[in-house]
Design goal:
Keywords: Glycosyltransferase, Transferase. With about 280 residues, the chain is an alpha/beta fold. The chain has 11 helices and 11 strands.
């Protein structure tokens, strides 16, 4: 295993950061995200940014500026927008290193995120996928609206995964081999990550969640609106059907999830936000 510079007298492995951007991203969000990526206490060996279809001139200008200042940033230009699952699979092929950190282009990584996650994965070779708590904010990353927590150990996460996503995807780090052996990302609107983690678990993979926030997750007025309505319900039904068909959930869990997860999607977005904040967050 190739090694990076030493921190705390322990050599840490080289690693990739995998990101994807498309034309609807706001330039100021992309700039803030890249700024956080390139100001880590443990610098990334490479940053793979997949341009999922043609972008706006403003987005290209920001990317070109960071490519000039940070040679570790490498871009992959796709001819057309193919969705997150497709972009991630293409990006995976271009990641040179076994450890891959996921980062969204509108979130902000805290300065020690890379160091803490790479160090933990190096010291815990039994872990295949790891994430952390995430701080959720609307406009000001200094003003945290809520914290999305998960169980921390693999046994509780495996149980949790039967009815909710067991990994905070925006703050995840994983071993490339485990993802590829589990079939990689597959196109499943809104749920590419959940379906992936389910297959990782079925393949014998082990999950872990670091019990601290390592990332500020950007929310807005449309966040809850996107998580409701007939389109989202259809995607939810498809996910639950697929999880049942591959044997990840049994019949009881399948029916339970339909009753627990589908009805809230019919609520107005303001009521749905209350459910998230009062029942599903702290």
């Amino acid at each position: 295993m190739s090694l990076l510079v030493k921190q705390d007298e322990k050599p840490l492995p080289q690693f990739s950061v995998l990101m994807s951007v498309y034309f609807k991203e706001k330039p100021q969000y992309l700039r803030s995200s890249l700024e956080s990526v390139f100001h880590q206490t443990l610098p990334a060996t490479e940053v793979i940014l997949v341009c999922d279809g043609p972008l706006t001139p403003e987005l290209y200008n920001i990317i070109d500026t960071y490519k000039s200042n940070y040679p570790s940033l490498k871009t992959i230009q796709l001819e057309k927008n193919g969705g997150l699952g497709n972009a991630m699979n293409i990006g995976l092929k271009h990641c040179q290193y076994e450890l891959i950190i996921r980062m969204d282009t509108d979130d902000i990584a805290y300065p020690q995120r890379f160091y803490k996650q790479v160090k933990t994965m190096y010291e815990r070779p039994d872990i295949d996928v790891m994430s952390s708590y995430i701080d959720e904010f609307i406009d000001n990353p200094q003003k945290i609206e809520s914290v999305k927590r998960l169980p921390t150990n693999d046994i509780k996460l495996a149980k949790y995964s039967k009815y909710r996503c067991p990994v905070n995807h925006p703050s995840s780090i994983f071993r490339k081999k485990s993802i590829i052996e589990s079939g990689g990302y597959r196109h499943m609107l809104y749920f590419e990550d959940y379906f992936l983690w389910a297959r990782v678990l079925m393949n014998g993979g082990k999950l872990y969640c670091m019990p601290e926030s390592l990332l500020a997750f950007r929310m807005n007025k449309d966040t809850y609106e996107r998580r409701r309505g007939l389109k989202y319900i259809k995607c939810e039904l498809y996910l639950q059907k697929e999880l049942h068909q591959i044997g990840f959930t049994n019949t009881y869990e399948y029916i339970r999830n339909l009753f627990l997860r589908v009805p809230p999607r019919l609520l107005p977005s303001n009521f749905l936000s209350l459910i998230y904040k009062r029942l599903l967050r702290r």
